[in-house]
Design a protein that fits this description.
alpha/beta; binds zinc ion; globular; five-stranded mixed β-sheet; 38% helix; binds 5'-O-[(R)-(carboxyoxy)(hydroxy)phosphoryl]adenosine
């Protein structure tokens, strides 16, 4: 059985994992930096890279220990090398190159977004159908940095059909959470709060763009929530900073929950409407493959399940622990590339802030 040691350091999670060639996750360790960035309500790149440097070795050691293996048992090393914060990516890439060199084992560079689309294939149960029977599939990435729909003819091939023209959906969840006075990262907080709210209390806009567009836009939705919470802004004559009438501290708990639930309904609706359109354009799909932090959202999960039911698609979505950034999905995707003979040259391998496609 081939074992891959995988590293993920593209944003604010330092993660390492050991995954075997049947895509079983032998260990998955994630050190979140959320507390370090909370006071800034967003990731501070310099703080993130420094924290990766401090945490990577202990996290790697824990991943090997949890899997009950040593470095000598590892057959290949995988690292997320794009897209992400360049300073953060470089920490993982430098470590992976060092291990590959010292142990004289192959190295695989992994696109973080492609890995999100492999997370749902991890830890297959005994009755799981062979991977190739799940494709062609629609791919949906919903994360803090990306929102996109893909056509996937097989797990290593994706063609983008549409993506966000402004905020990513996770970014919209985080910004709305900040507007509501919730802690960062706000996606999970909105999910929790929305359970106590009336999702019909507000009719927030679902932006669908042009009639055939498969792109997304979340900035109008975010601004509608902002105006609902703070009132219409007054801009001083001759320009300057807008001032608002009120803020989230003027809301009751119920009002806050109603706004969270109504926002979540609109954000999820934008996704399902675009999937309906995408399926009309590509009718022969067998599955919907989902990944990214927002795929942990309870409302999105249940609406995607109904969408797949009515559309006769198999839903491949990650277990909760593989939704947000983790290294197991990097290791899983690396196994698919290794089986396809797609190795990298450690002398030329480098990190890049943007995705390949
Ligand atoms: O995939 P991810 O861990 O990082 C990126 O690659 O961007 O996604 C992080 C995003 C954050 O915006 C976070 O608020 C959101 O996923 N998120 C959620 C939930 N859990 C995480 N959004 C909505 N509901 C959730 N339950
Ligand atoms: Zn991610």
């Amino acid at each position: 059985m081939t074992l891959i040691l995988a590293i993920e350091s593209s944003c604010d999670e330092t993660a390492a994992s050991v995954v075997d060639s049947s895509l079983r996750v032998r260990s998955s360790v994630v050190a979140s930096q959320a507390a370090l960035h909370a006071e800034y309500a967003g990731v501070v790149p310099e703080i993130a890279s420094r924290a990766h440097v401090e945490r990577l070795m202990p996290v790697l050691r824990a991943a090997l220990n949890d899997a009950g293996v040593t470095l000598q048992d590892i057959n290949a090393i995988a690292v997320a090398n794009r897209p992400g914060l360049i300073g953060s990516l470089l920490v993982g890439v430098a470590a992976a190159k060092a291990f590959s060199f010292a142990l004289d084992i192959p190295i695989l560079s992994i696109d973080h977004i492609e890995a999100h689309l492999t997370a749902g294939l991890l830890d297959p149960d005994e009755n799981a159908p062979p991977i190739n029977t799940l494709y062609p599939a629609l791919g949906l990435v919903v994360s803090g940095g990306h929102t996109a729909i893909y056509r996937m003819d097989e797990p290593l091939h994706r063609e983008r059909l549409g993506s966000t023209i402004d905020d990513a959906i996770g970014e919209a969840f985080d910004k709305v959470a900040t507007i509501l006075g919730l802690t960062y990262p706000g996606g999970p907080e909105i999910d929790k709060l929305a359970k106590h709210g009336n999702d019909r209390a507000h009719d927030f806009p679902v932006s669908l763009l042009a009639p055939n567009s498969l792109d997304f836009s979340f900035s109008g939705l975010k601004t509608s929530v902002l105006y609902e919470v703070r009132g219409t802004p007054t801009v001083p004559e001759g320009g300057g900073k807008a001032t608002f009438q009120r803020d989230s501290t003027d809301l009751t708990d119920q009002q806050r929950a109603d706004i969270a639930a109504s926002f979540q309904r609109a954000a999820v609706r934008a996704i399902t409407r675009k999937l309906e359109r995408a399926l009309k354009e590509t009718p022969s799909m067998r599955s919907l493959v989902v990944g990214g932090g927002v795929s942990a959202n309870s409302r999105l999960r249940s609406e995607l399940a109904s969408f797949c039911d009515t559309s006769n698609l198999t839903l491949i979505q990650p277990e909760m622990r593989y939704c947000i950034d983790n290294a197991a999905m990097i290791g899983g995707h690396a196994h698919l590339r290794l089986k396809a003979g797609e190795l990298d040259d450690r002398n030329t391998l480098t990190a890049a802030p943007t995705g390949a496609r």
